[in-house]
Write a structure and sequence with these properties.
Blueprint (H helix, E strand, L loop, with lengths): L1 H19 L10 E9 L2 E9 H8 L10 H6 L1 H11 E3 L2 E5 L3 E5 L2 E12 L5 E6 L10 E6 L2 E5 L5 E4 L6 H14 L1 H11 L13 H27 L7 H21 L5 H23 L6 H29 L4 H27 L1
Parallel strand pairs: 1-8
Antiparallel strand pairs: 1-2, 2-6, 3-7, 4-6, 5-6, 7-10, 8-9
Helix pairs in contact: 1-11, 5-9, 5-10, 6-8, 6-10, 6-11, 7-9, 7-10, 8-9, 8-11
Length: 356
């Protein structure tokens, strides 16, 4: 029995240490934006890369923790060389011009205009994109060409069909992917699931009854984040990215602590209240993808469907396993040690997102 508790505690602490050591989990996923306009054999556009990511790749900061314009200006030749070596268009001679700083939802970005003269097929554009993947495997290149957004997740060559639009299926895939790589969202969901099979007096413990309760919790979470996802994505009300990411980390703290002290027994209410915060986080990802005005409804529905599919896959995998071990000491150790580890890890995220 002691060994079972120790194993569960060891797994929880190992997860805590692993995740705390990974910078990819500390902030909104690393993104860069490449906006292109194609007119025959002439291409114009701009590449926006995070100053934070540039510093990680090129060590721009002098060590005082603040990246100044003078430091960026001094590093401009290195930045341009980095971009030129990792961002190329097939059969095109690309040149970069005078950069500037722009503020996006998650901080300052180095915005560099580009221009290219190409000898290529009129129907497609070949792209080789290799920014930051050696530093962050979850980095995304968001390539905007006309009404189309292509998400580049690795350094493999990409062929862009000109004149196409972003498909609804791509929004579904991005919704699924965002859930599966979003450890804060996953931990919040797991904190809601862990107590579902905890024995309570007068409450039936059949799998059907447990599934019904989980369905209510997940539905409340879905309804809440869908409301704020739509409100934020269409621009009715938005919140700063740093505030949203910090609040999401705090929601994981609250869910984990609630499992330990049971301040609120109605977990569907916890799921709804805190799910409102997660919707703002989802919307920032959707906005970055580029919302085509003529396909707004399809984009919103597709992304939200993807989030629900990704969420459902986690529930389907986790809930039966929890039900099978519900009567064991290992489950109780997992419930309390896992919830405590989640709360501690999310507290560390809160500090990172608020102060770093």
């Amino acid at each position: 029995m002691i060994h079972a508790r120790m194993r569960a505690l060891t797994v929880s602490l190992a997860l805590l240490g692993l995740c705390a050591a990974s910078p990819a989990f500390a902030h909104k996923p690393s993104d860069a934006h490449l906006k292109l306009a194609v007119d025959g054999d002439h291409v114009t556009g701009r590449v926006d890369v995070s100053v934070r990511d540039l510093d990680a790749a090129l060590a721009i900061d002098d060590g005082d923790g603040e990246i100044t314009w003078s430091e960026l200006s001094e590093a401009e030749p290195r930045i341009t060389a980095y971009l030129a070596s990792r961002l190329t268009l097939d059969n095109c001679a690309v040149t970069f011009s005078t950069p500037a700083l722009v503020d996006l939802s998650d901080g300052a970005y180095w915005a560099t205009p580009l221009e290219a003269t190409c000898a290529r097929s009129a129907a497609t554009l070949g792209l080789h994109y290799g920014l930051f993947y050696d530093l962050d495997a979850q980095h995304r290149g968001l390539v905007h060409v006309g009404d189309q957004t292509v998400v580049v997740r690795n350094a493999e060559p990409v062929t862009i069909t000109l004149g196409a639009s972003t498909s609804a299926a791509s929004f579904v895939r991005e919704g699924i992917w965002h859930i599966w790589i979003g450890l804060d969202h996953i931990l919040f969901l797991l904190c809601l699931l862990l107590p579902a099979v905890f024995p309570r007096r007068g409450a039936p413990m059949t799998f059907r009854a447990v599934s019904k309760e989980v369905f209510e919790i997940v539905t409340a979470f879905t309804l809440a984040h869908s409301i704020t996802l739509v409100i934020s994505a269409v621009g009715l009300f938005t919140l700063p990215s740093r505030f949203v990411e910090t609040a999401i980390a705090l929601s994981v703290v609250a869910a984990g602590v609630n499992n330990l002290v049971r301040l609120v027994d109605a977990r569907w209410a916890v799921a709804f209240a805190l799910g409102l915060l997660h919707g703002f986080g989802f919307s920032s990802v959707l906005i970055d993808l580029g919302l085509p005005s003529q396909q707004l409804v399809g984009a919103l529905l597709g992304f939200n469907l993807g989030v629900e599919l990704g969420q459902a896959a986690i529930v389907i995998c986790v809930l039966p396993m929890l039900y099978l071990i519900r009567s064991t000491l290992a489950y109780r150790a997992l419930l309390f040690a896992g919830s405590g580890a989640a709360a501690l890890l999310a507290s560390f995220w809160t500090y990172q997102r608020c102060f770093l």
